[in-house]
């Protein structure tokens, strides 16, 4: 059974940095298309970044492009989200997701088979 465990969240001031980690257990991470989503209170879950199985083709939502970097560490079965120049509007619960599909719409939560429990990110102004 596949399990995803996020870590690295916390509270920072605007302009600060955080690095989120998502450890995949139960299967090899290269079997999955990986993504990070976030959800703020009262809002829908939003796709933030995704990366292909070979780690070569990251994708980002417009609001984080140029500030966030998604990366894979295959030997550690882990996907990271480096978050720089954080803004108060980045505050949310961040979730890791894995999809076994090919040719998926990475923006849609329904495209993913497995989810982590989330890690909270709070950015103060």
Tell me what the structure shows.
The protein is an all-beta fold and 125 residues long. It has strands spanning 3-7, 10-13, 18-25, 33-39, 46-51, 59-60, 68-73, 78-83, 92-99, 114-115, 119-124. Strands 2, 4, 5, 6, 9, 10 and 11 form a seven-stranded mixed sheet that branches. β4 (33-39) and β5 form a beta hairpin. The protein is globular.
Number of helices: 0
Helix content: under 10%
Question: What sort of overall outline do the alpha carbons produce when their principal axes are compared?
Answer: globular
Biggest sheet features: 7 strands, mixed
Total strands: the figure is 11
**What class would the helix/strand composition place it in?**
mainly beta
Order of helices and strands: EEEEEEEEEEE
Radius of gyration, in Å, reads 13 Å
The N- to C-terminal Cα distance equals 41 Å
User: pLDDT below 50 for ≥5 consecutive residues: which ranges?
Assistant: none
Proportion of residues in extended strands: over 45%
Q: pLDDT average, as an integer? A: 97
List keywords for this structure.
125 residues, mainly beta, four-stranded antiparallel β-sheet, 0% helix
């Amino acid at each position: 059974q596949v399990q995803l465990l996020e870590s690295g969240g916390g509270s920072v001031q605007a302009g600060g940095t955080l690095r989120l980690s998502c450890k995949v257990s139960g299967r090899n991470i290269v079997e999955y298309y990986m993504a990070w989503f976030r959800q703020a209170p009262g809002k829908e879950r939003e796709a933030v970044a995704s990366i292909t199985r070979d780690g070569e083709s990251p994708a980002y939502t417009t609001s984080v492009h140029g500030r966030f970097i998604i990366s894979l560490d295959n030997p550690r079965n882990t996907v990271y989200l480096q978050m720089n120049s954080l803004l108060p509007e980045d505050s949310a619960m961040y979730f890791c997701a894995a999809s076994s599909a090919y040719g998926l719409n990475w923006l849609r939560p329904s495209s993913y088979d497995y989810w982590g429990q989330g890690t909270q990110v709070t950015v103060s102004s």
